[in-house]
Amino acid sequence: MRRGERKAGDTADEGAPIGRALVRLFQLIGGLDTTELKVRVALALALTVVSKFLVVWAPLMLGDAINAMVAGGAFLALLVGWALVRFAGSAAPQLRDTLFQPVSEEAQRRAGVAVFGHVHALSIRFHQSKRTGAVWRTIERGVRAIDFLTRFVAFNIGPTVLELVLAAIVLGTRYGWIFSGIAVATVVVYVGVTVGITEWRLRYRREMNEADTESSARAVDSLLNFETVKAFSAEERETARYDEAVRVYARASSQSNATLQGLNAAQGFVQNLGLAAMVAAAGWHLTGGTMGPGDITAVVLVMMNLYAPLNILGFAWREIKQSSIDMEKMFALLDEPVEVADAADARDLVVRGGEVRFEDVAYVHDGRHAGLGGVSFTIAPGTTLAVVGPSGAGKSTLVRLLFRFYDPQAGRVLIDGQDLRSVTQGSLRRAIGLVPQDVVLFNASLAYNIAYGRPEATRAQIEAAARAARLDTLLADAPQGLDTMVGERGLKLSGGERQRVGIARAILKDPPVLVLDEATSSLDSVTEMEVREALDDASRGRTTFVVAHRLSTIAGADRIVVLDAGRIVESGTHGELVALGGLYAELWERQARDQDEA
Question: What residues have CB less than 8 Å from 572, skipping those under 6 apart?
């Protein structure tokens, strides 16, 4: 199989049953819930059955025409009839595929959308533990497998069995049951040989799939981090890592291709042996005067027609199994539990003043011995509270708990007295604006990125938010203004410009609660001053929760909470904490000294 063709899941469940995959697929796409889809499926199945009848009937008509020609009788009508029947038999599958295509596309659309939506609903913990390239590959393969599995099961395997039954009946009733026996025996031996060799070949396919997934994951990781690759002059190293995975794929592919040739040879031997037996039996009947030359042609063509779908049986069997495995892997994604889910009786958050309260909150990440423990504080409506502390103190965890990316393992987080676990996540996150340290943008226009939190905003509202975020210079210099594309993850913009886009996004969203998660820590002092002005304007009149590394940016906060090792060790205003002479004063003095030295 060529490099660009579809491959199965990377860690295939060897025992994935085809029937279970089909049942899950039908459940996932919601059944055939429209009249049009039902009619299309019914017509497609009817055309399949009709085509098989015509395929079996056509050789008999040709045989009769040849017999009539040899006997000197009227054969022209039979030849014309044979041509028409043969054309109809070959045209019916084309019409069937045309009718069925919208059904297949709809099934793929529904399945893909369901899985894509579910993956987005999964927790931060899930996404942090998975490789994006591998997850997307699993979804892509599973969706593509839907078309293959439905087509081959419905229009290849089943119809081939029907054709064999029809051929056996026709051969037996018209020419003798020995011909039926030869046809059935040939097909049974052919299927046994094909399935046996194909099962043996599957291990090479699995190696190919694992190498393919690994190479895709490495490629995506490397391309997403191309700046880091260039900064460390690691182009050759990354290329070598990719080449390593591709070499494994190439080796397994070569072995798979070699065994494929062996399978083809074995299939050809069985086919020709069955054909020779059929011709020998027909010749014996011909010498006995019970069959004519046309009858020999007819039985040979019946066998040749049977071989046509059987020729791809090895490929079909392998791909059906692999497609079911691909779908099982996709369903495994769909079965991933949603760690943070809305309660059955969850209601929308109602924000009256915007008070935020943490009550004895505890949370420890997997694989860590320490985390937040017994953290309590309140942010009064319309005020600014800043959280500072050493790296690893738990500052970012507080932000994620407020957004309910995690649920506390103990304690509660409340907004205006409402436990976040009792409200819908959608209403909660609509009420909170975020300006993170690293504003990651979509590869779309400035307008799209600014309006991401409020997609229904008008052009005038987007422009007003951009001006409020001090984006005037960027818009004036950009060739297409708000329609300028920002590039992959916004990399066409500077760090300060990306921060301003993030601020504009928060201003346009107009949330009652604003979170600034180290929003200026990666900026130079001049850019920080410009961005700081925009942030001050954005936070005015809102309940603002600030996570800060540079203490100079939060000196004017209404209250400052100092975290250390997951616990609050100090709390107060900037002046109070400096006078206290504790951890905050030490951090303040250290940063002031570093700034003086710089």
Answer: 559, 560, 580
Which tokens go with 589? 């003095």
What's the maximum distance between 2 C-alpha atoms anywhere in the chain? 121
Q: Which residues does 155 contact at the CB level (< 8 Å), separation at least 6?
A: 44, 48, 93, 96, 97, 100
Tell me the per-residue pLDDT of 206-230, one tens digit each, with 9 for 90 and over.
777 777 777 777 887 888 777 678 8
pLDDT digits (tens, 9 = 90+) for 266-324: 888 998 999 899 889 988 888 888 888 888 888 888 888 888 777 777 677 777 777 77
Contact 130, 122 (CB under 8 A): no
Question: Of 400, 467, 457, 483, whose CA–CA distance to 434 is shortest?
Answer: 400
Distance CA 469, CA 508 (A): 10
* Integer Cα distance of 66 and 78 in angstroms: 9
| Per-residue pLDDT at 572 | 92
In the chain, residues under CATH classification 3.40.50.300 are 341-431+511-598, 439-509
Distance (Å, rounded) from C-alpha 532 to C-alpha 186?
Answer: 81
Across 162-184, b (16+ Cβ under 10 Å) vs e yields ebbebbbebbbebbbebbbebbb
User: Given this model, what pLDDT does residue 12 score?
Assistant: 38
> Which residues are bridge partners to 387 per DSSP?
547, 561
Does domain 439-509 fall into CATH 3.40.50.300?
Answer: yes
For residues 88 and 101, what is the distance between their CA atoms, to the nearest angstrom? 20
> Contact at 8 Å (CB) between 558 and 573?
yes
3-class DSSP state of 183: helix
The answer to whether 44 touches 103, Cβ cutoff 8 Å, is yes
Rounded distance between C-alpha atoms, residue 262 and residue 259, angstroms: 5
- pLDDT for residue 28: 60
Q: What is the DSSP letter of 153?
A: I
* Distance between CA atoms of residues 528 and 531, nearest Å: 5
What phi and psi values does residue 481 have, to the nearest 5 degrees? 60, -130
CA angle 470, 472, 474 (to 5 degrees): 100
As assigned by CATH, the class of the 18-334 domain is mainly alpha
Single-letter residue type at 453 = G
Residue 498: predicted pLDDT: 87
**According to CATH, where is 1.20.1560.10 located in the chain?**
18-334
- The domain made up of 341-431+511-598 has a fold known as Rossmann fold (3.40.50)
The values of phi and psi at residue 33, to 5°, are -95, 10
